[in-house]
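Researcher: Structure for this, please.
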Amino acid sequence: MRKSTPLLLSAILIWVALGPCLPSAGQDPQEKTDLEYRIGAKDLLEIKVLGEDKLSTTVRVSEDGKISFPYLGEIQVDGLTAAQLEKKLSRLLEEKYIINPQVKVSIKEFRSKRVSILGAIGKQGSYELLGRTTLLEILAEAGGLARDAGKEIIIIRQQADGSNISLKIPVEDLMQKGEAKLNMVLEPDDIINIPADQIVQIYVYGQVKSPGAIQVLKSNIPTLVRAIAQAGGFTERAAKGSVVIRRKDALGNEKEIKVNVKNIQKNKAKDVQLQADDVVFVPETIF
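Model: Predicted structure, token format:
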């Protein structure tokens, strides 16, 4: 099987979907992020006061959303943007110490708003939510879906009452059909799980041009006719009317299914859906 095509397709689809979201030329992505991002616990802030080196500091937000600032003591910063915190500090400093203070706040580490990505993804791990972040944006940041990704993306989200809900996103509808409503905005602490689709084998032997094992995804096991085509098609000596499928049940008991493929090709019979580990044998015609 070729391994590069699904990854390349995944990357192209994500790139196309993200086109309108990418920053325009000349725009500083970090500056845009700082303007939109709302400060939370564990974030690391760099605060500078123009001409007042003693007031300039780097401080981490506490678990209860506060920072300790020279002369002002503890200040609640949770939920503020950098710009809002600049205004708040300027007002507090002007009330007590400095005339028209010039305050600059930069977010050095984003720790309070993160999501986790697990499963069949390029790079599993924890990712920062920088401003308004969508599902496709975080998938792109994580390297795109892996070759063995399944048909669904599952987002586990915590509700206000502490309970969890599972949101199931069909990969085809999101990435191939481009349904915008499925490209949802992520929330802090979301867990994004991309279950892997198991790779299984079917076997095609006898009078086909390339006999042997065929690796397929469990969610996309071929039909009998497709499997024979993947094995190179029938040879000239194939007995198309006497194809046999050998299949084991859950207890390991084997049964044989005889199929007249000529009838399927003439639309007189339905194609047969194969299962994992099926063995297809195409006998040689006696004529």
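Researcher: Any notable elements?
Model: Residues 107 and 178 are 34 Å apart (CA to CA). The chain has a mean pLDDT of 86.
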